[in-house]
Amino acid sequence: MASFRLSQQARESLEGIYAYSIETFGKRRAKHYLRTIQKKFQDLPDVIGVKSRDEINPGYMSIRVESHVVFFRIRNGQGEVLDVLHRRMDPSEHL
Predict the structure, then answer these.
(1) pLDDT digit string (tens) for 48-74?
(2) 45: left (phi > 0), else alpha (psi -120 to 50), else beta?
(3) 54, containing H or E segment
């Protein structure tokens, strides 16, 4: 398992997801949802359901987590979470 760091864009997306979730679902559910996404980072890339996303950029991978998709890559044993997008967002416009 590789260690992972968050890109600045991923951090900003997670902050936006959290803020939206608080407004829409309340603080308790927002915290739970954010933890669910963050737990997935710990298991990357060894979880079932990881997809190659070479059509976006060679080496990119993704995994769906509820309503969002985590995009990441691994280089020289170091993982990077590139962004976390809502499943309806077009990744080619954001990555």
Answers:
(1) 778 999 999 999 999 999 999 999 998
(2) alpha
(3) none
User: Which residue is it, tokens 């902050």?
Assistant: 15
Alpha-carbon separation of residue 26 from 21, 40, 57 (angstroms): 7, 22, 36
| pTM greater than the 0.85 cutoff | yes
> What's the start-to-end Cα distance of the chain, in Å?
24
Q: Of the CATH numbers 2.30.30.30, 3.40.50.460, 3.20.20.10, 3.30.2310.20, which one belongs to the domain with range 3-93? A: 3.30.2310.20
